[in-house]
Each structure stands twice: as structure tokens, then as C-alpha cells.
Write the C-alpha cells for this entry.
Amino acid sequence: MFKQHISKLGKKFLLIAGSLALLASPLANAQNWPTKPIKLIIPFAAGGTTDILGRLLAQQLTKDLGQNVIVENKPGAGGNIAAEYVAQSPADGYTIMLASGSMLTVNPSLYKKLPVNYAKDFVYITNVASGPMLVSVNTKLPVKNFAEFIAYAKTKDLNFGSAGIGSQVHMAAENLTYSANIPATHVPYKGESAALNDLVAGQIDFMVGNLTAATGFAKAGQIKPLAVTSLKRSKQLPEVPTVAESGIPGFESTGWFGLIAPANTPRAITDKIYAATVKAVNSEALRTSLDLNGLTAVVNNQKDFETQVKAETVVWEKVIKGRNISPQ
């Protein structure tokens, strides 16, 4: 009888000890993180702004975290393919994503069926950078400036390319065509670089692309830059006027990018990612690289990031419904 009692106590002790070990394990893992390479998922094709920024950030995070941060591109469906992959990944900090603002604020209203719930399946860590867009046309289009472009577009049904339906590039162009009251047909691509290549080739008429990806083509004379979408001129293309000073007062459209991770990623880990990102974007090396690419470093805490996403989601929901924008 006594032996049975001891045996029962032993089993209870083992159960309690096992439970405590399970509870302690995630905490220990979080404290030791990172102990292996980290995947930084890029939801668009190589060569676009998200990809360029992601690779710059990965280089600096590798130095700061002491583990390789490996960039992996998973393009398609406006970023939703990558989002699904990340949402289904272990919430251990070893798979994170550099999302475009459009994924978090446009996709929830644009797509009737999504493989993820952007509000519940991810934890928002921080913004990383933002930057203006460049309105540009192919070199064959018979216009010399933004005013001529608008006048010409009013008499034609031009087409424009984007990084995909609902992408920041797409929505910026929708904003422009709506504000200028010009007709235009959207031609979506799987990434910004593919759209830019077709703009260079004359397959599409114009783009409102991220300055980061488009500047090189503009400086090489492969496309005609007409206006930037920031309120002030860009240091990268100082001779190019703003849309606001070219005929649409007050017009502004910027793209931004932020780090997210699977929901339930321990706060101790996301805090480490946040701290490393703040250190990275404040480093002279990354700030110089961002500046050369027409981007501005932006970091905010998780609460402010969530507030920003919620506010912009409301704005884009109205735009999508008002203009009857469809993913088809």
C-alpha cells in the first residue's frame, strides 16, 4: 500500500516536472534566440523595391544578430502566397517577412477569400522604411512632361503596369488616375521588376513605381520620368518635379514596408528582432544605402504599427469600394 502511494506521488511529480519543462522550453528558446539562420521572406519577385530593401536589411541584421539572415522570394497573388507560407511557419522567430504596406492594408478589403487573416495570423514588429513613387512612361510615348501626359491620357485608353493587383504600385496608380480623371487599364505582373522591364520595352504605357526600383532605368534613359509622388522633390532625381507642383495640388503617395512574424511568436523574440532592426536602420551603412535608393528609415513600436495599419485599412477599404477595384 505504501509503495503504491509512493508510486502515485512519483507519477504526479513526473507529470508536474514535465509540464514545467514544457513551459520553460519556449522561454529558454526565446532567451537563446537566435541559434540558427533566419529566413526573411520577400513576398515579391527579385529586383523590386521590397526585394532590394530586404537584402539591404538582411545584410545588416546578419551582423547584428550573429546568424545568417537568408532572403527567400515567394512572389504571387499580391503577397498572399508568401503570407500563407509565413502564417503556417513555426512561431519561433526563424521565419519572418518584410511585408509591403499594401499587403496589410489593401489585401483584406480587396480579396473576398484570403488564405490568411492579416489581423490575426501575424504579429507586427516594426516599420522599416518608406519611400515615394515615380510616375514614368515608356520612351515611345509622345509626351515630354506630366502636364502633356495627362492631356494625352485623356484622349487615349493607356495601360499601366504594377507589381500585382492590390500592390502599392497598383494602388498608387489608381490614386493618380482617379485624381487626374484619366482612363487607364491595369496590367498586373508578379513583381515590380517585370513591369518595369515591359515599360522599358514599350509593352506598357506608364507606371507609378517605387522610386527605388525605377531610378536606375530613369537615369539610364530607358524610361521617361515625369513626376515624383512625394510632396518634395527627390534627391535621387532633383530635376523631376512633384505631382503636386505639376497639376494635382496636394497629391502624395508613398510606399512603406514592415516586418511581421507568425502569430504567437514569443514577445521576447519579437523584441529582439525589433531591437536589431532599430540598430540596423540607425547604422550609417544602412542609412546610406536607403538614402541612395530613395528610401527613408522608419521604425515604430508594435502598438503604433498596428494603429497605422488599422487606420490605412479603413482608407483603402473606401477606395476599393468606391472605385470597384477587383482582384479579377
Summary: The mean pLDDT is 91. The radius of gyration is 23 Å. The longest strand covers residues 122-138. The beta strands are 38-42, 69-73, 95-100, 122-138, 158-162, 184-188, 206-210, 223-228, 254-262, 296-297.
